[in-house]
Design goal:
This protein is α+β, with helices and mostly antiparallel strands. It is built from 3 helices and 4 strands.
Length: about 200
């Protein structure tokens, strides 16, 4: 037979042991959470060269990376010329010539002189021209896919039943839809991209 004080002390010991286990578990979980909230930065290997530079700004909202592969992109060159000449003339007259010239040029890395206009590549196209070409190619591709899909859904079922040549006319309808879609996509793309 157990006494009531023994039964109460067992309950207290079990509650105390349970409280210690729960407390240690909470401390362990808090430690894990505090250690896991350290930000892990991605490893980005930038190509490094003589003229490359980069700047990384990390905030709670994300990362901001500025990378320039060719920094400085423009080289400055300054030249000055001062010429003073005194000439004695044939009949005793003196002539003095003074020339002062100061010239500042900007050169790109490939050695061409910047004339103040758009930067052209080796084929004579500016960055804006290249962007327009890329935008036009994408618009043509999207238009061609849309034109093919529309002709496959509407025109091909109507002409596929033509005896003997239905299969041939169906192929022509797909090609015609692709060409019309490509042309329409180019027109729409040039309006949206200001080209």
């Amino acid at each position: 037979m157990t006494t009531p004080t023994n039964k109460g002390s067992k309950t207290k010991n079990i509650a105390l042991a349970l409280g210690v286990v729960v407390g240690i578990a909470h401390i362990g979980i808090l430690g894990h959470l505090l250690n896991s909230t350290k930000p892990e930065y991605p490893v980005i290997n930038f190509p490094e060269g003589d003229y490359s530079s980069y700047e990384v700004e990390a905030t709670r909202d994300g990362y901001n990376i500025k990378f320039r592969a060719n920094d400085p992109a423009i080289l400055n060159s300054e030249r000055s010329l001062q010429l003073d000449q005194d000439k004695k003339g044939f009949f005793g007259g003196n002539q003095t010539t003074r020339r002062r010239e100061h010239r500042t040029d900007q050169f790109t890395m490939d050695g061409t002189r910047n004339l103040g206009g758009a930067v052209l590549d080796s084929e004579g196209k500016s960055a804006e021209d290249i962007e327009c070409i890329v935008a036009d190619a994408g618009a043509r591709s999207q238009g061609a896919m849309a034109g093919t899909a529309i002709s496959a859904g509407l025109v091909v079922p109507a002409v596929a039943g033509i005896p003997y040549v239905g299969w041939l006319v169906s192929g022509w309808a797909l090609l015609l839809g692709q060409k019309a879609g490509s042309s329409a996509g180019s027109t729409v793309g040039s309006m949206f991209n200001d080209c």
